Amino acid sequence: MANADLSRINANIGALNALNALRDVNQKLALHQLRLATGKRINSAGDDPVGMTFAKKLDSRARGLAVARNNIGDVQNMMSVAEGGIQSISEILITMKEKILQAANDTIGVSERAAVESQLDDLAAEIDQIVESTTWGGVVLLDATYTGKQFQVGEQTTDTMSFSISQDHRASALSVADSDLDVTTSAAASTALSNVNTAVDTMNTSLQSIGSVSSRMSIKEANISVAITNVTASYSRIFNADMAMEQLEATKYLVLQQTATAMLAQANMAPQSILQLIMG
């Protein structure tokens, strides 16, 4: 800062120093007022170039993780639809088993066996109806065509999970179609019972597979939620303003603005003291 020389009135150095100080105070006051108005510590790249770069990377990661979490939610919903269909088929198979066990007993007559056979045929048809109606996004889930699917479960290109429902859950594939459920004799009913028991085991395997994937999805969702919180906290610390601190700084510079303005006014009056030398 240049030293003031009151004897040289053509250049009022004291006033210039006061003016420079006032400009500096005004600039800093405007910065803190802007931060208070926007809630952001960084309002342009010039405020903190490195901080802006870090903040944008963190924001990109947080938003990507949020989309991945939504994707996981969609996967869980789809798994729930598939599981619901399999559960319904499993209940039908258990009902089939009960009816076949009745038919395996030679205490029932021909008409009763025919009634059981008819009911079994209806139940097999219902299994096929469930398979056809268990869909997600217009795609059937339980007819062995839902294979080779890839789920994006993170914000990186490598954060994926492959999934397939390779088991065909239609009655014919489970060997519980019309031709597989002959109960006209106790011996035939025994064979049909074996087919149904195998189909029940197949359903349990399918449920276990879907349950395992659903469990992994729940773990991933929890981990991503924690990651989003941590990344957002880091982003906020870099990018957003500490409102209490900004208010303190703004108050300080408001006071300095007033004192600098007063000092500028005094500095402008200082050269008038030379008149006393001239007027004696």
Characterization of the model:
This protein has 280 residues and is mainly alpha-helical. The chain folds into 2 domains: 66 residues; 174 residues, f41 fragment of flagellin, N-terminal domain. The protein is built from 6 helices and 4 strands, in the order H-H-H-E-E-E-E-H-H-H. The strands form 2 sheets. The protein has a two-stranded antiparallel sheet with strand order 1-2. Strands 3-4 form a two-stranded antiparallel sheet. Strand 1 and strand 2 form a beta hairpin. Helix 1 packs antiparallel against helix 5, helix 2 packs antiparallel against helix 3 and helix 2 runs antiparallel to helix 4. The protein is rod-shaped and about 140 Å long. The two termini are 32 Å apart. 24% of the residues are buried.
Keywords, separated by commas or semicolons:
single chain, 280 residues, mainly alpha, f41 fragment of flagellin, N-terminal domain, 2 domains, two-stranded antiparallel sheet, two-stranded antiparallel ribbon, 6 helices, 4% strand
Describe the structure in brief.
With about 280 residues, the protein is mainly α. The protein has helices spanning about 15-40, 50-105, 110-135, 185-240, 245-270, 275-280; strands at about 135, 140, 150, 160-165.
